[in-house]
Amino acid sequence: MVAGTIVVGGGTGFIGRAITRKLKEIGYDVLLISRQPSLNAISWNDLASEGLPKSCVAVINVAGQNVLDPTRRWTPGFQQNVYASRVHTTRLLAEEIKKMSKPPNVFGVISGVGFYKASETETYTEDSTGGNHDYFSQLCSSWEEASLLPDDVNVRRFIVRSGVVLGRSGGIISQIYWPFYFGLGGPIASGKQYMPWIHIEDIAGIFLHGIQTDSVKGILNGVSPQIITNYEFAKALSRAMWRPCLFPLPEFAINLAFGKERASMMTQGQKVLPKRTLESGYEFKYPDIESACAECAHSFVDPSTR
């Protein structure tokens, strides 16, 4: 039985695919929005001209150009793409929701822990301030503000500030798999920087929880409850893949490849806790880095190569 239609912006991406799979498993009909229309997806231009389907019960937006795309230089043009793919798409969805005579029940949007200032001492929760210290924090602020709806639009709204998402089919694991596989993996720079992280199953699970739980509203931190450093992540992934962890990636090389401003996403970090996420009743499937890395490495590592 179909439980209703849910619209997922960015539904063809890494996180969007995971959310879509979970929604379909429990009976929702899913309409995807992507840059290019296809058999199962409409384009953002289609949305602007035709609006949201009257049958939709929830709208989710996880769209966003990959900031750490190694094939793209950190130019003003690319920065504009990063901004527009997040802020403009979220604003368009909010505008289309406002036009509906019977709007969806819930509007869920992704954001990032880059909202919080990098720090070696501060521990942040959803109640912490931020959003105004650098390009990425200002991007998160604009992203979240774009989802605002008037008080007279009766739609429950929640925002998930995501950490680094770990999963087999995308994100950071897909980018660093081969160096680790060949025993060349290691921490980024000193490895001492904190690394807020979450498994792909849990970021998708939090969105599903937000859709289904009427009490969920406002900010949720989409991070594991376990605080780790980048070095601890590299060690856990190496162990899961039965490989050594010997070769740190020098900070100067990262700055050279990505540009210093963008590289700061990898060379700096912060301690972030999912206080409200846990209080809302969400239970993490992968609460520790060892189990998360073991799942990510499972399909890659042939036992005979150990």
UniProtKB/TrEMBL annotation:
Domain DUF1731, first and last residues per copy: 249-295
Database matches in InterPro entries: DUF1731 (IPR013549), Epimerase_deHydtase (IPR001509), NAD(P)-bd_dom_sf (IPR036291), SDR39U1 (IPR010099)
PANTHER family reported for this sequence: EPIMERASE FAMILY PROTEIN SDR39U1 (PTHR11092:SF0), SUGAR NUCLEOTIDE EPIMERASE RELATED (PTHR11092)
Start and end residues of each NAD-dependent epimerase/dehydratase domain: 6-213
Pfam families: DUF1731, Epimerase
NCBIfam families: yfcH (TIGR01777)
Highest rank taxon of the organism: Eukaryota
Name of protein: Epimerase family protein SDR39U1
SUPFAM superfamilies in UniProt: NAD(P)-binding Rossmann-fold domains
